[in-house]
Design goal:
MetI-like fold
Length: about 350
């Protein structure tokens, strides 16, 4: 138990360090292009009129730009040092702790994600409100994909060993076709099939912000299509991988011996083949959570769900880089923690695997 605790602490520490490094790189690169955000805000406030002289207009515009940069914290140096080159001589200037990166890093350590370039407001509350939609959506899709992959994989493997036939072959073909469809096509297809007055029209078309007086059942119905779109996007890969691995296990010597002793094919699958086939599935699960987080960008935009995906899409369109950096940090943490979770599940599924901090 003590070894497991040290290993978990080491894995989580590495995940946070890697996420910090990725977010720092994105932060520095985004600030190199911060002039676009300033130009957008300057264009919104540029009401100089035709009667103002050109010189006065340039002066007013310059003062407005300086005010915007001061408000957004862009007037300070970007990093601790800057490199300049004059007359062939390269020199380095130390700016101390008064720079944009240090201020962002200190704020991050205190739980502050920064200020929006769009309106100058803290983006932490905005992200917390968005996560209140994304976390349930992602969790339900993750649970549905895992359960669905186990059921479908067992069904596909529980058949003739020579080749798939009948309805199992049709199900395999359907999963293969779904695997080749992009997520936006799946989401639009579900909208057309289940939220179209000319078709079934049994589910809400949009999952947007619910009313306070809306019943929980109605709120749950709004999540059916977004969750189903995410599940269908990742289920085929997991189910086909598990089915292939199970069929391979059923062709091994221990499976033949178990059948000779009278064990039914269903019990052989559940008791013996599935535990041995679970490790390849865990490898796929390591990339499942970040794939769902990335897929939320598409799903939340299509179904008008005010989650992190929609927030990121709007931030990229408006060059609101602090929001984008927070999204990169969130996605990187999800990816790295998923890898750590997969390693822990490896050790749980196979006692021969030893955890080394």
């Amino acid at each position: 138990m003590r070894l497991l605790g040290r290993w978990l602490a080491a894995q989580v520490g590495r995940a946070f360090l890697a996420a910090w490094a990725i977010a720092s790189l994105v932060f520095l690169l985004s600030r190199l292009d911060a002039a676009k955000a300033t130009d957008l805000l300057l264009g919104e406030t540029d009401n100089l009129g035709t009667a103002v002289l050109r010189a006065d207009a340039d002066t007013i515009q310059h003062q407005a730009r300086q005010a915007i940069e001061q408000r957004l914290g862009l007037a300070e140096p970007l990093f601790y040092t800057t490199r300049t080159q004059q007359a062939g001589t390269v020199s380095w200037h130390w700016h101390g702790l008064h720079n944009q990166y240090h201020r962002w890093l200190v704020g991050l350590l205190h739980g502050h994600l920064g200020l929006s370039f769009r309106d100058g407001q803290p983006i932490g509350p905005r992200w917390r409100a968005a996560l209140a939609y994304t976390i349930p959506l992602t969790f339900l899709a993750l649970l549905g994909a895992i359960v669905g992959a186990l059921l479908v994989g067992l069904v596909l493997a529980d058949g003739p060993q020579a080749a798939l036939s009948g309805w199992r072959a049709g199900l395999h073909t359907l999963l293969t076709g779904l695997q080749g469809l992009p997520l936006f096509a799946l989401a639009l297809g579900l909208l057309f099939a289940f939220a179209n007055p000319d078709m079934l029209n049994i589910l809400p078309a949009y999952a947007g912000s619910p009313d306070d007086e809306e019943l929980w059942g109605q709120r749950a119905l709004r999540l059916v299509l977004p969750v189903l779109a995410l599940v269908l996007a990742v289920l085929p890969e997991l189910a086909l991988l598990l089915a292939h691995t199970l069929r391979h296990e059923l062709s091994t010597g221990y499976a033949t011996t178990a059948r000779a002793k009278g064990l039914s094919n269903g019990k052989l699958l559940r008791r013996h083949a599935l535990p041995n086939a679970i490790l390849p599935l865990l490898t796929a699960l390591a990339g499942l959570l970040p794939a769902l987080v990335a897929g939320a960008v598409v799903v939340e935009t299509i179904f008008a769900l005010p989650g992190t995906g929609r927030l990121l899409a709007e931030a990229v369109a408006m060059h609101d880089y602090p929001v984008v950096v927070a999204g990169v940090l969130f996605t990187a943490l999800a990816r790295l923690l998923a890898l750590a979770l997969a390693d822990a599940l490896y050790a749980w599924a196979d006692p021969r695997i030893r955890l080394v901090p």
